[in-house]
Amino acid sequence: MNQDQIKRMLLSLEDTQLDFSVIMTGKKSRKVHGLYKPDTREILLHNKNFTDENQLVYTAIHEYAHHLQCEYDGVLEGARHHSVQFWARFHALLGKAEKKGLYSIGVEKSPELAKLTEEIQSRYLAENGRLMKELGRLLVKAHGLCEEAGIRYEDYVDRVLCLPRVAARTAVKVSSLDLDPSLGYEAMRIVSSYPTPEKRAEAERQFVSRLSPDEIKVNLARAVDSEDPVERLLKEKNRIERTIASLQSRLEQVEQSLQSMES
């Protein structure tokens, strides 16, 4: 593919209102495969780095995602270049390219890698999900036994199991939900973090559809953003009122304490 063909390919994935150029540097770089220059809107591709067109397309899409990021979010500095929003946009573009037959991960090219991938997914990711779900169930049982024996469950988790409390709480939460262990524990943990059954079901559906974690996080955040503005403001009003009531109560306690110290 030449520069013009790459640009047409990128525009076929998602249009942009900001013109940009694609430049093949004719060089090999040990540091990066490509670069986006927001000031000149140039996508630079070190084409001597690539052994096949698939790798070239991947890098071109990566840099185009930066261009779209600048168009929608403004120029970002430093590590913020690779935000959750960036990775979600990039992965979504790769998905579009796959559907159009413009890009392929290519796992099937290596029978050994395809076999290894199946082993990782079935024997390790899915098995880890099952084991962590069972761990959560056992922790619930341990909690009850601690109470019966007059033992502080938190101390048991901290100093007997040597398990971070957050990890223990998450395992318990995952075990209480009807989640598919084949997702793997990390995906189950993300799904369990959503507050409603509807959001958890949608997150699980998107994982099953092979969307990346960053895509799912951004997609569900957009669903929140699309909520009726009046309903959203009413919820915010309720939260603020509860906070004010809590602070007012604490203020009264502090004032009473000060009065008792002064008397």
Q: Could you explain the architecture of this structure?
A:
The protein has helices at residues 3-13, 53-73, 84-99, 111-149, 153-160, 165-176, 185-192, 197-208, 213-225, 229-262; strands at residues 21-24, 34-37, 42-45. Helix 2 crosses helix 3, helix 3 (84-99) crosses helix 9 and helix 4 (111-149) packs across helix 6. Helices cover 66% and strands 5% of the residues. The chain has a three-stranded mixed β-sheet with strand order 1-3-2. The model has no long low-confidence stretch (mean pLDDT 91). By secondary structure, the chain is mainly alpha-helical. The longest helix has 39 residues, at 111-149. It has ten helices and three strands; from the N terminus they run H-E-E-E-H-H-H-H-H-H-H-H-H. The chain has three domains: 3-105, Metalloproteases ("zincins"), catalytic domain (Zincin-like, 2-Layer Sandwich), CATH 3.30.2010.10; 108-193, no CATH class; 228-263. A hairpin with a 4-residue loop joins strand 2 and strand 3.
Strand-helix topology:
Elements: H1 3-13, E1 21-24, E2 34-37, E3 42-45, H2 53-73, H3 84-99, H4 111-149, H5 153-160, H6 165-176, H7 185-192, H8 197-208, H9 213-225, H10 229-262
Parallel strand pairs: 1-3
Antiparallel strand pairs: 2-3
Helix pairs in contact: 2-3, 3-9, 4-6, 7-8, 8-9
Top keywords for this entry?
263 residues; mainly alpha; Zincin-like; 3-stranded mixed sheet; 10 helices; extended
What portion of the residues fall into strands of 2 or more residues?
under 5%
pLDDT under 50 segments (min length 5)? none
Can you name the CATH architecture of the largest domain? 2-Layer Sandwich
Number of strands: 3
Q: Roughly how many Å is the radius of gyration?
A: 25 Å
The helix-strand sequence is HEEEHHHHHHHHH
The CATH H-level homologous superfamily of the largest domain: Metalloproteases ("zincins"), catalytic domain
How far apart the termini lie comes to 85 Å
Helical coverage, percent range = 55-70%
According to CATH, what is the topology of the largest domain?
Zincin-like
Order of strands in the sheet with the most strands?
1-3-2
Count structural domains.
Answer: 3
Mean model confidence by pLDDT:
91
Count of DSSP-assigned helices? 10
Net shape: extended
**How is the main sheet built?**
3 strands, mixed
What is the C-level CATH assignment of the largest domain? Alpha Beta
